């Protein structure tokens, strides 16, 4: 089948020098939230770059506020799956071709990474599409339920949620253990809460900010700590499994 979805972008106020990020695409259910920064995660960003496994390459055009991006996946290309994108109704060409044997029958899920942006999705629920759909493509919502794959379900109640708290001296290996434990139990979808995990996500074009924060390490730590405090407040309200990795 050939699958389609549409995403409309709106900017939110921010005081940061590079405030707005939108990256759209597809990932396996087992991938992290960092779209395009690990294997089997395929993204296209507003900077006019495509990325997978932290490899960023020029693709298509830049996009920004009020633009509409369509994400297309074609499973009818023989031994390969083709992923491509459209901007405001204009096809930007094939971004990725992945051999079906590498996917091993695993489903690709729509994935969006945003920073200081509001986005609106059209999976087929809108009466009118933003732009015309290419021939042969179907919106995800119009696929028969039997052809869809459900993502991993989270805990049904707070009583079923797990919280693991790491205890130990700095550099004792807590973060390493937490990452390995989360990877070994993918069905748990553990959210690791800690400044190390946050700083690992503070990337620009896939590169860690630590590399270009020379002399301002205290600023980075302060920002990560503020993020962690906010995440802990949010975590208390969500039915998820957590690993608290903070000294």
From TrEMBL:
This is HNRL1 protein. InterPro entries: B30.2/SPRY, B30.2/SPRY_sf, ConA-like_dom_sf, P-loop_NTPase, SPRY_dom, SPRY_hnRNP_U. It is found in: Nucleus. One of its GO terms (biological process) is alternative mRNA splicing, via spliceosome. One of its GO terms (cellular component) is nucleus. PANTHER family: HETEROGENEOUS NUCLEAR RIBONUCLEOPROTEIN U FAMILY MEMBER, HETEROGENEOUS NUCLEAR RIBONUCLEOPROTEIN U-LIKE PROTEIN 1. Keywords: Nucleus.
